[in-house]
Design a protein that fits this description.
With 252 residues, this protein is α/β, with parallel strands linked by helices. Helices cover 45% and strands 14% of the residues. Bound molecules: NADP nicotinamide-adenine-dinucleotide phosphate.
Length: 252
Amino acid sequence: MRFQDQTVLVTGGAQGIGAATARAFAAEGARVGLHCHRSREAGEALLAKLPGPGHRLFVADLREPDARSTLVAEVLETFERLHVLVNNAAVIRLHPPDEVNEAEWRGAWQDTVAVNLMAPADLCYRLGRHMVEAGGGRIVNVSSRGAFKGEPEMPAYGASKAGLNALGQSLAVAWARQNVGVMTVAPGWVETERVSPMLEGEMGQKALEQYPGGRPARPEEVAHTILFLAAPGAEHLTGAIVDINGASYLRS
Ligand SMILES: NC(=O)c1ccc[n+]([C@@H]2O[C@H](COP(=O)([O-])OP(=O)(O)OC[C@H]3O[C@@H](n4cnc5c(N)ncnc54)[C@H](OP(=O)(O)O)[C@@H]3O)[C@@H](O)[C@H]2O)c1
């Protein structure tokens, strides 16, 4: 078991990619800190099914700086030592520039940047420094293909993920000598509970045409890559941004 005696925090872990990641870590022996915000019931149900002992649910609205501090304090009080942080939670909200008013535009930017960039930055700051002091650790940030390809219908999302890429790479350099690896995964479409309905019908067909293999990723495939990056042996991948997009977008 690759993560025996290790502790892992997965944000936005009650569903989708976060839930698949939590399940995969628990199956490999980790104690999982499962964070959620609105999906508390789903989080509790998942927690009850995770294999192995010692898992815990943490509830926090990551838009709020104080809630991030409380989350960090609760996690460290519970686990004492955190080995892996997965920044997965995200706001994914449409705000096409030609269709929203200024208040909607600002609101989308505020929430998106707060959850997708400021929250990971704060969690990295506090928990990454904890890892430095404790002798090492791993951070995996969940970004998006949209950071490279553009997100015309949700520009704040694309910008937040591009910022997340730069955050991870900067911290990888900052902590390279302190045994804290910072890696990023950048998925394209992933068949989660949220996305699957969007992939049905004409719009979904058009999206799938981008995929030479004819299908989007499964949540378990993203989880598999996150565990690979967090596992012993991947130390020198620090700073890497790994595309998980079925060759639908090849960046040079
Ligand atoms: N699915 C895709 O096609 C795809 C593609 C590229 C990248 N990604 C990335 O993969 C990650 C997971 O995506 P997913 O598809 O699994 O999405 P999802 O099911 O919508 O999960 C995102 C999670 O973020 C949490 N979240 C949202 N606002 C929050 C807030 N204010 N405070 C705390 N948590 C909050 C939600 O938690 P609660 O439900 O508990 O409120 C939600 O469970 C995201 O970073 C996303 O950008 C996904």
